[in-house]
């Protein structure tokens, strides 16, 4: 089954002048309960060669639900319903399901949760600006896991890009557009029922109970 990075993507108000980078990033979460965005994702190898480009849509309902849907060039869906993380590959007619907490504990999707967890999970430092964007580097505490660092880039008001560097030397760059803060979202977006006839594989290799 193809794997796409689970993302943490946010559209947040900028509070200028905060001295502590972690506090600055956390502040952008204030007042954001839901968001919706379209994105383009590009994955590069360790030499900077483009491996693949995908497009999709994201919907988030804090603190622990999101829907990430790849729409081109293939269709793939991730749904976190607060308890389980569902991954559906239409081409393979296969669904994989895991306990959400187990899969997201050290994931970039942690950024979508309680901002207080951000400081506990990541060390945050400010980077030099680039292209008119303010940039912050998030490094996982403990240095374990697949993610080596995450870079968030903001313009005056909005999160415009997220860059994920993994332990295999790959770099995943996401750029966001049509960002909406606190749109009214249908709760049904954050539930998933496997379509009839597809294979459902649980965390233990068997269909979940």
Per CATH, which architecture? Answer: Clam
Total strands: 12
Q: What best-fitting shape do the alpha-carbon axes yield?
A: globular
Major beta sheet, specifics? Answer: 12 strands, mixed
Order of helices and strands, N to C?
HEEEEEEHHEEEEEE
Give a structural overview:
This protein is mainly beta and 209 residues long. It has a single domain (21-190), classed as Clam (outer membrane lipoprotein receptor (LolB), chain A). Helix content is 9%, strand content 45%. The chain has helices at residues 21-27, 100-104, 115-121; strands at 34-44, 50-61, 65-72, 76-80, 84-89, 94-99, 122-130, 133-140, 147-154, 159-166, 171-181, 199-201. A 12-stranded mixed sheet has the order 7-8-9-10-11-1-2-3-4-5-6-12. Strand 2 (50-61) and strand 3 form a beta hairpin. The longest helix is centred in the N-terminal third of the chain and has 7 residues, at 21-27. The radius of gyration is 17 Å and the shape is globular. Mean pLDDT is 81; it is low at 1-18 and 204-209.
């Amino acid at each position: 089954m193809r794997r796409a990075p689970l993302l943490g993507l946010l559209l947040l108000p900028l509070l200028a002048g905060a001295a502590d980078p972690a506090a600055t990033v956390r502040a952008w979460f204030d007042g954001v309960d839901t968001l919706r965005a379209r994105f383009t994702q590009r994955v590069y190898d360790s030499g900077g060669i483009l491996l693949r480009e995908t497009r999709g849509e994201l919907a988030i309902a804090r603190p622990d639900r999101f829907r990430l849907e790849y729409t081109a060039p293939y269709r793939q869906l991730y749904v976190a319903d607060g308890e389980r993380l569902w991954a559906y590959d239409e081409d393979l007619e296969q669904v994989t399901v895991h306990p959400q907490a187990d899969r997201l504990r050290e994931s970039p999707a942690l950024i979508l949760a309680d901002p207080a967890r951000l400081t506990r999970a990541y060390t945050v430092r400010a980077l030099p600006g680039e292209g008119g964007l303010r940039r912050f580097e998030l490094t996982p505490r403990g240095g374990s896991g697949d993610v080596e660092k995450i870079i968030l880039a903001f313009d005056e008001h909005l999160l415009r890009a997220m860059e994920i560097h993994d332990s295999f030397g790959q770099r995943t760059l996401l750029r966001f557009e049509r960002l909406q803060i606190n749109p009214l979202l249908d709760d049904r977006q954050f539930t998933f029922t496997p379509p009839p006839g597809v294979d459902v594989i649980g965390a233990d290799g068997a269909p979940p109970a």
